[in-house]
Design goal:
single chain, 158 residues, alpha+beta, five-stranded mixed β-sheet, 4 helices, globular
Length: 158
């Protein structure tokens, strides 16, 4: 298995990214709907133009097995950059084969090379397979002090 940093200008890698992301979008944990047309048309160019965006794809030969989309951020408390993993996708046929672990290790390598203090991600509370995979790779729920509870991921659409 090969795990590569995506070159958004590479047509095959770009097509593989969109295919994997569409599979994820159609999954109940990804919302259960196909990737919107605007994403199919514009996502690759927008990722390429977005400062700090990077993606990782896992391949077996020419077959894409998994994807992570990541974005650089900054930790004010650590005074260092961080990487937020926005999407983690493993194709249904490749689940349970260590694809997630290999991709997250590649993200960690990239984060270290960029001088990051940590990696963050969000996960649905009932996505038990993903939670188990992330724990296996060293991720834990975020809390500054257990007395005040774990952080929650909230959003507001604009």
């Amino acid at each position: 298995m090969d795990v590569v940093l995506v070159d958004y200008r590479d047509r095959k890698q770009a097509a593989d990214l969109l295919c994997l992301l569409d599979d994820y979008a159609r999954d109940p944990y990804g919302g259960g709907e196909p990737l919107p047309d605007i994403c199919r048309r514009e996502l690759i160019d927008r990722l390429a133009a977005f400062p700090g965006a990077f993606s990782i794809i896992a391949y077996r030969g020419e077959e894409p097995l998994g994807l992570t989309n990541c974005f650089m951020g900054f930790s004010t408390f650590l005074c260092k950059p961080l990487v937020n993993i926005h999407d983690v996708v493993v194709s249904e046929a490749a689940r349970g084969q260590g694809v997630c672990t290999l991709m997250l290790e590649k993200v960690a390598q990239e984060a270290r090379e960029r001088g990051c203090a940590k990696i963050t991600l969000e996960v649905l509370e009932k996505n038990h397979p993903a939670r188990a995979a992330y724990r296996k790779c060293g991720f834990r729920p975020y809390a500054l002090d257990e007395e005040y509870g774990q952080a929650e991921f909230w959003q507001r659409y604009l």
